[in-house]
Structure formats: structure tokens, C-alpha cells
UniProtKB/TrEMBL annotation:
Top-level taxon of the source organism: Eukaryota
Family membership noted in the UniProt record: Belongs to the calycin superfamily. Fatty-acid binding protein (FABP) family.
Alphabetically ordered keywords of this record: Retinol-binding, Transport, Vitamin A
Organism per entry: Sphaeramia orbicularis (orbiculate cardinalfish)
Gene it is expressed from: fabp7a
Matching Pfam families: Lipocalin
Functional summary from the UniProt entry: Cytosolic CRABPs may regulate the access of retinoic acid to the nuclear retinoic acid receptors.
Example of a GO MF term: retinal binding
Keyword Hydrolase: no
Positions of the Cytosolic fatty-acid binding proteins domain: 7-24
Keyword Transport: yes
Listed name of the protein: Cellular retinoic acid-binding protein 1
Length: 127
């Protein structure tokens, strides 16, 4: 379950984050700040809710929801999305949906470190 992720995690490395932000449409100035920010992520449980706090010099956020329960989120780059926390085996997944787009944050523990992969999907529908 989520227990394995309940800890304080400090970012030590980031690969291709600028490309991810570009795909989201994040502006140049915000991307520059995002590329140099080294946030601390604190994951905990409060009863049946998962709490994810992100602390940085840029912005602090706190998300709290039950697994599988959709909630409203305003992202650090000011997107308004519908988010859901789920477990996929031993992976802790956060899915964000907005304007026909979807991105997933897939977190897993490897060698005592939390590794997060972000994936973005764009949907196009034709008639």
C-alpha cells in the first residue's frame, strides 16, 4: 500500500523535466524556475486519506484524498485539474485530467529511493 511511500523525499536529480513542462504548455519563465527548484515531498496518511505535501522556494502545495477518489487540484503552474491517487501494484500513481489531456505521476521505490516518472497523454477525437 501507500505505507512504503510515507516519508520525506528530497529531489536529487531530474531528467527531461523541461521537455515535460513544454508539453504541458508551461511558459518559459515558469519553466526556468521549475528547472532549478529542488522540492521536498512529504507523503503521509491521515486516516483513510493520502496526504502529499510539496515544499519548495517556488511554491508549497498540499493534496489530500482517499485512494480512488477524484479531487480538484490547482497545479504549481496554475492548471485546474481533476486528480486521483491510486495504487497499481507497488506503484503510487497520481492521474491529472484537464481539457482532454491526461498526465500520470508514477512513483515507485527503488533501492530506498522514490523514483517518479511523469507521462503525458493527449487525446484527439474526430468525427
Amino acid at each position: 500500500m501507500v505505507d512504503a511511500f510515507c516519508a520525506t523525499w528530497k529531489l536529487v536529480d531530474s531528467v527531461n523535466f523541461d521537455d515535460y513542462m513544454k508539453a504541458l504548455g508551461v511558459g518559459f519563465a515558469t519553466r526556468q524556475v521549475g528547472n532549478v527548484t529542488k522540492p521536498t515531498v512529504i507523503i503521509s496518511q491521515d486516516g483513510d486519506k493520502v496526504v502529499v505535501k510539496t515544499q519548495s522556494t517556488f511554491r508549497n502545495t498540499e493534496l489530500s484524498a482517499k485512494l480512488g477518489e477524484e479531487f480538484d487540484e490547482t497545479t504549481p503552474d496554475d492548471r485546474h485539474v481533476k486528480s486521483t491517487f491510486t495504487m497499481d501494484g507497488d506503484k503510487f500513481v497520481q492521474t491529472q485530467k484537464w481539457d482532454g489531456k491526461e498526465t500520470k505521476f508514477v512513483r515507485e521505490i527503488k533501492d530506498g529511493k522514490m523514483v517518479m516518472v511523469r507521462r503525458m497523454t493527449l487525446f484527439k477525437i474526430y468525427e
